[in-house]
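The instructor's notes for this session suggest beginning with a concrete chain rather than abstract definitions. Hand out the sequence below and ask the class to guess, before any prediction is shown, which regions might be ordered.
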Amino acid sequence: MTIKFQNLGPLRKGKFKLNDFTVICGPNNSGKTYLAYLIYGTLENISSGSSFLSYHLGKTIPRLRRLKENETYIEFPEHLINDLIEAYFSKIGIDKLFNTESEKFLENLTFCIADWKRYLRVRLEKNRDVILPLYDKADRKYYRVNKKKLAGQFMDVPEEMPPIDLLPAYIHRLLSVAFPKPHLLTGERHAVPLFYKEFGAGRYEVPTKPKKLAKGVKRSNSSPVQATPVQELPEEREASFSLPIGDNVRYVQGLPEKESKEGKLWQEHKAGILRNFSRISPAEYKWDSRKEQFDYQISPVDKIPLHAASSMARELADLYFYLRHDAAPGQLLMIDEPESHLTPRNQMLMVELLAYLSNIGLKVCITTHSDFIVRELNNLIMARELGKQNRQQSIYLDENCLSKEKISAYVTKEIKSRSKAPLFELEEVRPGTYGLAFDLFDDAIEEQGQNTNALYEQLECTSGGSKKKS
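After discussion, reveal the predicted structure:
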């Protein structure tokens, strides 16, 4: 899937391909998080069962074309997906996705999936055995549509064609199968277990204006200000964070209902997931229905409330719950800065976990500015290259090695401009036999090394001179 964009905050333009493992690297404030939010908002709308998407599909029903006797085909309009994207952002407002109502840096944003037809065809060919039952309330019957054949831009419907009013639902099902459902772990994920109870279901408001007092009433300076419960917030209060963060909160709020549910990936690869996850954190995460709290459980008798656990424990909670309850092959796991709150060694182990998840069918996309993350990715690529050359390497397990063909990597490069604020473009970094040639960290590492050597030499000279005098 190739995505093109222009004018995404400080990112002036870019084109990138979502691969089995996608890496977006760059300095602070270069637009990496904005790009992650944009991908998430788009794919969430296309792959989910949003009522808005079904409504818009109903207004743009593809034409029916009978090419052969007793065969019916659906022809997709050339701009179907990108029209849906444009309509989606026009409807919800780009400001709600980024929480930037008064900002101007997103007003000229353009965004499209350049190769959506080819991508749709390839993805559906891989899922040709999927049956899509559609229920017609009027006729009280199911229409079973089996995807068996794809030819060019036409979708073959070999079984009974559903009525015209069911076509939007049918096409929606096709899109949900073809486009990966995303799950984004935002940079604020470690704080969600602390505050998810403070937000009412579906409401993510915090005070933006002081509550007005009635005429003639004065605010007392002697008594403490009483906090207003969330449920009683006046209408002038506004959301304080972006849509993906709100979705993170909503996801955690719904976890108690999923306690007994196991996702498809967990069912098929539980041992491997736990083996790789436990190298970072040996504990499990549980919901205590009696106390109505999440626990960080190190052993059956040793546990602490998650809100009292370390920042690292809270950082990993959303990832653990997603892998256990919801992750499925073909979905897209997105993590904004997976290095957050992790030691260098745990950053390396996090990369190995994500590589394992990618190898068992979960698509992975990360944004990072960690040298440890990038260098460990390079190690996993080199380890796989050694395996191709029939050379044994015992440093990494084969399940954690990464094929360079399945990795797409990009860096946000600063460009020359007349703007006072730095501007960037997205530049591709092609993986090679030795990994990814990111030069983002070289200057800082070299400067730190030079400073260390200079200080060491000065100390040696000083101590040497002192010894001679004595």
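Then share the key points. The domain at 185-200+242-442 is CATH 3.40.50 (Rossmann fold). Confidence is low (pLDDT under 50) at residues 64-72, 129-133, 144-159, 201-239.
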